[in-house]
Amino acid sequence: MTHDKLRLGVNIDHVATVRNARGGDVPDPVRAALIAEQAGADGITAHLREDRRHIVDSDIERLATQLSIPLNFEMAATDEMQAIALRHKPHAVCLVPEKREEKTTEGGLEVAQQDNKLAHYIKPFVDAGSRVSLFIAANKRQVEAAARIGAPVIELHAGAYADAWAEERWDVRDSELAKITDMAAYADELGLEVHVGHGLTYDSVGPIAVLPQVKELNIGHFIIGEAIFRGLAPAIQAMRRCMDEARAGI
Ligand SMILES: CC(=O)[C@@H](O)[C@H](O)COP(=O)(O)O
Ligand SMILES: NCC(=O)COP(=O)(O)O
After folding, report:
1. Which processes are annotated in GO (biological process) (predicted)?
2. Is the pLDDT of residue 3 over 70?
3. Which of 65, 105, 225, 234 has the most crowded Cβ, counting Cβ within 10 A?
């Protein structure tokens, strides 16, 4: 398999988190998205949570009209979100699980236990031309269920791997990396396009970026944090370099 260019989707939710802390208009996540575009991001990811704790409806409207690069619209599989996504027809719709009380997206979407329901739910997106992605744990049952319902893309949840790295629990990091590695290969065999995201940093991105089946990484929290110190464009470009150097075997 060839190592084609790995796409970087920049998640701008965390700019909106800072904005919403004061309830005003700044910092503007759409401005961040446009800077990310200039800095070489291949796409923008934004998660319109049901509680609107960061991205809000008007952000999605502005992103949909102002971006020149693909928008990956993350959302819970609800009727309300389906109507919003169908109105904007983003390049990609990524279904994620949501729990109201969680600090961030803790787990992957349960696809295996609701495959009929989800197959029905994603059909209007497929018909509308949006690429459907399922944010799932690196677990065989979930990967097989994603393929079964006809989702073209999965995004493997890298949170446990990234947390283990941050906490220097190297045995857990290695076992989580092995799960992602195995499931990326298995999903590719089943014909799924593989993305990975959540919690990745300059340190932890390399072992994921080298996986030949992985086509896209979605990264936000670390990049936005790093932007405080080095600026948004340099923070994105540094992530790009980490990915490219790992992919090139440097
Ligand atoms: C699904 C996912 O991983 C992203 O949406 C990211 O975590 C940022 O959003 P939250 O921090 O609200 O989960
Ligand atoms: N889907 C994962 C994503 O968009 C970015 O997650 P994070 O880097 O903000 O944790």
Report:
1. pyridoxine biosynthetic process
2. no
3. 105
116 marked among binding-site residues: no
Residue 207: CATH number of its domain: 3.20.20.70
Atom of ligand 2 lying closest to residue 13 CA: 9
What's the pLDDT tens digit per position in 188-207? Answer: 999 999 999 999 999 999 99
Asked if residue 166 is part of any domain, the answer here is: yes
pLDDT band at 57 (very low <50, low <70, confident <90, very high): very high
Q: Is 88 annotated as a binding residue?
A: no
In a domain, 31, yes or no: yes
Least confident of 92-101, 162-171, 198-207: 92-101
Q: Which ligand is nearest to the CA of 11?
A: 2
74 is a catalytic site residue? yes
Assessment of whether the complete model's pTM goes beyond 0.90: yes
Question: Can you tell me the distance from the alpha carbon of 219 to that of 249, in angstroms, rounded to the nearest whole number?
Answer: 21
Ligand nearest to the CA of 43: 2
From the candidates 37, 155, 195, 198, which is the catalytic residue? 198
Q: Work out how many domains the chain is built from and give that number.
A: 1
